[in-house]
């Protein structure tokens, strides 16, 4: 009886000791209570480290944004640049033409003053330079003086230039030279241009030339 009782007590004590050991064993945690708060190998971030990490991410984002904006701007410049260059070229051309017109007109006025002062040679030089700057009235005047000084060939060249740029007097004058030289068809063409620009003398001359040309046609038959 005693031996049986002692055996039971010893078994209870052994069971209690094993239970205590199991409770103190760290590997006895169940799956529900042993879930880690961080993934394996992950270093907890706190304080300054977290701030630095956020700032680094923001810096990288800003740099990427700036790079994208720069590429977009470069594309826009590449697209707009040819148009901007063309506009600048036109503006420069207009500015050059305006400056030349001013120079040409100033020289033309000086030539008129020289004529008043009896300085024909000086006036002719001024007319020629003014014409070269594109002041068409000077081209007509230079041709007119050449015609008066028995140089119809030279006059015809300057008259033709001025006529092309809308000076109806030049068209009429070159028509007169052509008629004198017997080139009636040429004379008719120049008279017609001047007449279209309301030059009455040219209209009268045109009518006369047309009659002469009809007369020639009738005589030919």
Please, could you describe this protein's structure?
The chain is 81% helix and 0% strand. It has 221 residues and is mostly helical. The protein has a domain at 97-220: Alpha Horseshoe (Serine Threonine Protein Phosphatase 5, Tetratricopeptide repeat).
Q: Could you give a short description of this structure?
A:
The protein is mainly alpha-helical and 221 residues long.
Main features:
Serine Threonine Protein Phosphatase 5, Tetratricopeptide repeat; disordered N terminus; 221 residues; 0% strand; 8 helices; mainly alpha; single chain
Instruction: State the oligomer.
Output: single chain
Q: What is the string of SSEs from the N terminus onward? A: HHHHHHHH
What is the total tally of β strands?
0
In the CATH classification, which architecture of the domain at 97-220 applies? Alpha Horseshoe
Mean pLDDT: 74
Reported by name, the CATH topology of the domain at 97-220 is: Serine Threonine Protein Phosphatase 5, Tetratricopeptide repeat
Radius of gyration: 53 Å
Largest sheet: none
Spans of at least 5 consecutive residues with low confidence: 1-53
Terminal Cα span: 173 Å
**CATH homologous superfamily identity of the domain at 97-220:** Tetratricopeptide repeat domain
Structural topology:
Elements: H1 2-24, H2 48-116, H3 120-132, H4 136-148, H5 152-164, H6 168-180, H7 184-196, H8 200-220
